[in-house]
Amino acid sequence: MRPWLLTLAPFEGDARPRFLQIAHAVARDIQSGRLRPGDKLPGTRTLAKELNLHRNTVAAAYDELRSEGWIEASRGKGTIVSRDLPEVAARPPRVQASHDARVGYPLERFASPADAPWPEPRSGVLALAGIADGRLLPMTEFARAYRRAALSLQATAGHYPSSSLGHPRLIRALKEMLATTRGISRERGLIVTRGSQMGLFLLVEYLLRPGDVVAVENPGYAFGWEAFRRKGVRLVPVPIDGGGLRIDALREIVRHNAIRAVFTTPNVQYPTTVTLTPGRRRELLALAAEHRIVVVEDDFVHEYRYDGRPVLPLAAQDRDGVVIYLGSLSKVFMPGPRLGYVVAPTPVIEGLAWLRELVDVCGDPILEVAMAELVAEGVLQRHVWRMRKIFEERRDALAQAMRSELGGVVRFRPPAGGPTVWCEVDVDIDVAGWVERAKARGVWFNSGSRFFLHEARPSLSLSFVSLAPSELREAVRRMARGLADLRSRK
Amino acid sequence: MRPWLLTLAPFEGDARPRFLQIAHAVARDIQSGRLRPGDKLPGTRTLAKELNLHRNTVAAAYDELRSEGWIEASRGKGTIVSRDLPEVAARPPRVQASHDARVGYPLERFASPADAPWPEPRSGVLALAGIADGRLLPMTEFARAYRRAALSLQATAGHYPSSSLGHPRLIRALKEMLATTRGISRERGLIVTRGSQMGLFLLVEYLLRPGDVVAVENPGYAFGWEAFRRKGVRLVPVPIDGGGLRIDALREIVRHNAIRAVFTTPNVQYPTTVTLTPGRRRELLALAAEHRIVVVEDDFVHEYRYDGRPVLPLAAQDRDGVVIYLGSLSKVFMPGPRLGYVVAPTPVIEGLAWLRELVDVCGDPILEVAMAELVAEGVLQRHVWRMRKIFEERRDALAQAMRSELGGVVRFRPPAGGPTVWCEVDVDIDVAGWVERAKARGVWFNSGSRFFLHEARPSLSLSFVSLAPSELREAVRRMARGLADLRSRK
Question: Which of B103, B255, B364 to probe the A interface (max A CBs under 10 A)?
Answer without folding.
Answer: B103
